[in-house]
């Protein structure tokens, strides 16, 4: 089969690989019909995270058709259309039964090596992918949804939903989202669905601020000096009732903390790699802020996210900026890394 592999920081190859087969009785083999590039993919692509070996097949977002199932798979069958949860979880351990799939004893992430968990799983930038724990990980797609809608459920939109949920957004709230990349934009859409009254996007890139303003944000501000004063001027004097940090670096986290009103929740969904991020504890204590980390959990929230899509409450399709064949994925990664794309879909 054809596949795309990671060959070192900012190096990828289009290669031929053996088609995967069943290994465990709970596996499924899925033929990929649609895949995508995610902002989370950029961390190992840039060499920021260790654990992704050279030669690994990349990608953790896919919609496809089930072509083979193990003898113990019950929830899906051959011919079913499924979207894959980016988080691989067994579905049966104590953490999974509590709905905490990212803390599964056997957690993993497609195409991410051992950055998450102790087992490396090939990704979905390929013609076929082996899906472990298929009853939990392969999510049947409602007939009313297109492949393009469904692919957002496997990671980005579910992550945005979990961000809005973690931020304790209430109707009418001023919500600031730091980072207007794909997950930031989807978090804004989810925040709107939760009842946010005013959505403010904060991003240093002019193109991303423009995209946020066109798609969902009421206000888009440049990050940097005097950001708190500029937010007060834009809102009539107030700061954020809830903040979502959707970047995953120290600067973005500090911006979110600076923009939070007293008693606000700051929900961090950016993938942080720092082992020692300094935070302004004195100010956080004085303002009684809550700093909360959240990971998108498609297995837990899929039904609610499917319903938002089916009812037309959220429409993520305008985020799609580029469609490429599998052979062009290395070049598409480079464009995405430079901020020239919003959401890249891959049509094998």
Automatic annotation (TrEMBL):
Family label: Belongs to the zinc-containing alcohol dehydrogenase family.
Cofactor: Zn(2+)
Annotated protein name in UniProt: Threonine dehydrogenase-like Zn-dependent dehydrogenase
Highest taxon of the lineage: Bacteria
GO molecular function: oxidoreductase activity; zinc ion binding
InterPro entries for this protein: ADH-like_C, ADH-like_N, ADH_Zn_CS, ER, GroES-like_sf, NAD(P)-bd_dom_sf
Keyword Metal-binding: yes
Xref: PROSITE patterns: ADH_ZINC
Keyword field contains Disulfide bond: no
Chain ranges of the Enoyl reductase (ER) domain: 8-346
Keyword list, A-Z: Metal-binding, Oxidoreductase, Zinc
């Amino acid at each position: 089969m054809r596949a795309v592999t990671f060959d070192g920081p900012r190096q990828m190859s289009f290669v031929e690989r053996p088609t995967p087969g069943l290994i465990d009785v709970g596996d499924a083999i899925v033929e990929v019909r649609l895949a995508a590039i995610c902002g989370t993919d950029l961390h190992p692509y840039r060499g920021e995270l260790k654990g992704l070996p050279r030669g690994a097949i990349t990608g953790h977002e896919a919609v496809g058709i089930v072509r083979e199932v193990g003898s113990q798979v019950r929830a899906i069958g051959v011919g079913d259309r499924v979207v894959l949860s980016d988080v691989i979880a067994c579905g049966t351990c104590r953490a999974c039964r509590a709905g905490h799939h990212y803390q599964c004893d056997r957690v993993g992430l497609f195409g991410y090596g051992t950055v998450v968990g102790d087992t490396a799983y090939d990704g979905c930038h390929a013609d076929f992918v082996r899906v472990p724990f298929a009853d939990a990980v392969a999510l049947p797609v409602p007939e009313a949804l297109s492949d393009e809608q469904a692919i957002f459920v496997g990671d980005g939109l579910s992550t945005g939903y979990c961000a809005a949920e973690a931020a304790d957004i209430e109707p009418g709230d001023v919500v600031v989202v730091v980072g207007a990349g794909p997950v930031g934009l989807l978090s804004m859409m989810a925040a709107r669905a939760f009842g946010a009254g005013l959505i403010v996007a904060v991003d240093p890139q002019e193109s991303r601020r423009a995209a946020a303003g066109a798609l969902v944000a009421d206000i888009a501000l440049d990050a940097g000096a005097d950001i708190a004063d500029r937010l007060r001027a834009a809102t009539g004097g107030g700061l954020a009732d809830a903040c979502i940090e959707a970047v995953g670096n120290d600067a973005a986290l500090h911006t979110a903390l600076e923009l939070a009103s007293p008693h606000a929740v700051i929900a961090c969904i950016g993938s942080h790699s720092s082992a020692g991020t300094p935070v302004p504890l004195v100010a956080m204590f004085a303002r009684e802020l809550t700093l909360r980390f959240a990971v998108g959990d498609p297995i837990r929230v899929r039904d609610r996210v499917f319903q938002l899509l089916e009812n037309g409450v959220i429409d993520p399709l305008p985020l799609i900026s580029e469609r490429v064949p599998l052979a062009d994925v290395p070049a598409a990664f480079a464009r995405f890394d430079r901020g020239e794309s919003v959401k890249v879909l891959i049509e094998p």
